[in-house]
Amino acid sequence: MTQKLILSATLTAFVITLAACSNENSENKDALLGPLDPGNIISGIGKSLDSLDQDINRGIESVDEDIQGLNLPYITREPENPEDPNQLLTDPSAAAALGYRIHWQVNLTVPPTSSIQSITPLPNNLLAVVESNNLVTLLDANSGQARWRRQLGTASEVLTLPSIDGAFLVICSEAKAYRLRLTDGSTDREMSLANMAQDTPLLINNHFITGTPTGLVYSQSFNSGIVRWRYQLAGSTMAPVIRDGSNVIATDAQGTVAAINASTGRLIWRRFQPPWARITAQPLLRDSLLYIPSNDQKLYAFDHTTGDVRWSFIAERPLDTPAVAFANRVLLQVPDRGLVALDAQTGQEIWWADTAAQPVRLKGDRLYLLKGNMFTELDFETGKTIQRIAFFRADRVAYGQTTGDDVYLVHNDGRLLKLGPRCAGKNVNLHLPHP
């Protein structure tokens, strides 16, 4: 177990690593919702590390024992003081109920006039944080320590979600593209975009491919700034362009779906839906099918090579969130209705759940959904809710892309807390699967 207190002019990091693997038994079931006061963790910094370790381990061990065999559909805890900048964003008990432990918490000390705009888990155990005042911070996701922090562009620019391109972090505003060195955040290249970018650009072979508010899709070289090709859609691009092998898939607000060669801009196929079928959700490519939700209340499954519609599902509500595929199923959020599971090949309805939240993780027969600061655990076969856990002190939650298991709690005041699977190889209580 390690603890670090890192101070600098712009970044304060409170790093806590909790080890939580115990098989001892206890009879105290009142400890489930809060065996350990997080205020004691903070105030305990002045104690000896051995004493603090014992306090934390007692709390975590009691949770392991207490939740065993209990059938609890809801596990929540009210915050003592969610605005306290020194308070952990969750308790060890709430993390343990989800099968996680606290790895670290940092405080970026965001100014009162700003807030965290996005947090993006990246490959190579990196975490990019963008604030509304365009401060960008790159963190080591293993330790929570900042590699660098710097200002990009002007206050009037709105930055896109960042991405990794080799040894660089790439991030854009509506008018400019920035390529920053991962090592120190220094600028490798700053380039004016040929047209205003509507979404996060797609990077292919050192070229940007993006859509625009006018419906123009174009490819621009990052090295020379030269536009390689342009293709005009019928309406504004409302969703990011995605890659499909040597092609890209672009959609627009008029219901157009187009496959375009990424190198030449040559049209491969194009399909028109009714003009009220605006597309705002990012397409999903899985195996040979392209899943696209539409404002005409349908989820379409296109053959990605021909553009033919294999099947469609009517959801009775306009659809504006991306579909997600797990195993042989496609999961779709339907506003005011919940989550529907469909057979990926036929579109046949399998089950409905009353929770409209984003599916983020499938482990064994357990499906995990995320909305805001609330996790919901479902039985993947039936859609039945098993438990819900709300992290009240967090404004929102981000899910890791590197391991598929890390969870990041975010507070707008600058606090970030990382949760990771508790014990590799251990079957955690409440039938949580092996990490």
Written account of the structure:
The chain has 435 residues and is mostly beta strands. It has a domain at 1-109 and 394-435. It has helices spanning 38-43, 49-66, 92-97; strands at residues 3-7, 12-16, 74-76, 100-107, 116-122, 126-131, 135-140, 146-151, 163-165, 168-172, 176-181, 187-192, 202-204, 207-211, 216-221, 227-232, 242-244, 247-251, 256-261, 267-272, 284-286, 289-293, 298-303, 309-314, 324-326, 329-334, 338-343, 349-353, 358-363, 366-371, 374-379, 385-390, 396-399, 407-410, 415-421. The strands form eight sheets. Strands 1-2-4-35-34-33 form a six-stranded antiparallel beta sheet. The protein starts with a strand and ends in a 14-residue tail after the last strand. 42% of the residues are buried. Residues 1-79 and 424-435 have low confidence and may be disordered.
